[in-house]
Amino acid sequence: MKSTHTLLLILLATTSLIAAEPKPDAPPVETDKRLHSDGKGWRLDQAQIVDKDRPRVLLVGDSILNGYMKQAIEGLQGKAYVDAWVNPYHQSEHLNNKLAEVLESGPYDVVHFNMGLHGWQDGRIREGTFKPLTKAYVEVLREKLPNAKLIWANSTPVTVKDKPLDLDTEINPIIVEHNRMAAEVMQEMNVPVNDFYGLLVDKREWARGDRFHWTKPAYDLLGETVVESVTKALPANSK
What we know:
- The chain contains seven helices and eight strands; from the N terminus they run αββαβαβαβββαβαα.
- By secondary structure, it is α/β, with parallel strands linked by helices.
- The strands form two sheets. Strands 1-3-2-4-5-8 form a six-stranded mixed sheet, covered by helices on one side.
- The model is unreliable at 6-27 (pLDDT under 50).
């Protein structure tokens, strides 16, 4: 009986330890319905690798990436395998740990990355931390992928709901300021910039009218821009 009692105690203790183990973080939930995943979900979309000698590319972005991802993948067909991490993260103290996990899916030869639209709400990015956190993000990329070429894309304009020809006076100035600070970080760290904001700010007739998202002509333009810049950054013997 004593041995049975002891075994029962061991089983109970083991069960308690398992229950106490921390569960992995759940995918972030975007509480602002104006900033959603555009119906396609937050995810890491991975290419099926057949030719191990072909370069690999990682695209990082929010729901805007959902809009141009297909065009980018098709434009790089035969040149590189393309993974896409579509996420609602912004500059925060916790993001870089998640980034490091995603980079384990590599290695990647080129990383085209963006984050920004989800950081406009007051309190999401603590004052004075935008630039240090953006710099830390680049440092994680370079630590995990020391041989990869990096390309930053800034955030797209935010327009007035149902009046897409007008820029949103509440949110767009924040986007402009964040783009400015990010540009300073990228200049300091020698990371080239794809100016998504500049590409679309005078093409607001292509805005969808929901403030944040765009129509096919805009996404086609962004996709072409990504393909051109990534192709130039690919290893010379792969082009």
